[in-house]
Amino acid sequence: MTNYDRRLVERLLPTVWDPYAAYGITDSTAPDPDMPRARVDPAIRGTLYAHLADIKTGWQRAPLRPEERQAVLLYYGLDQDQRHIAHVQGVTRQTVGERVDRGVGRIVDCLNGTAA
């Protein structure tokens, strides 16, 4: 079982709406491409596909408030800046930042099984 953190969830969130975004995700622990390849045990090989399935489930099941869900969608799904989201939602940029942070936090909690 993977313990999800904010950094991983923020990296995976765009794949909820754009499946092609997964092609740009690389393993930060992988060796350089010019290094010789070692044999890999397929049982522990990669977790990308599991992460992709989990992030979609987390997005659907996390108890986000409507304004948090909208802010997260606009920020990670449509790549809008916080100033534009603030204009759309009729709030300050700081409020948008808080909504996005809370939304991502709720998704992390949901994926880790600690959601209230």
Automatic annotation (TrEMBL):
The lineage of its organism: Bacteria, Bacillati, Actinomycetota, Actinomycetes, Micromonosporales. It comes from the Bacteria. InterPro entries: RNA_pol_sigma_r3/r4-like (IPR013324), WH-like_DNA-bd_sf (IPR036388). This is Uncharacterized protein.
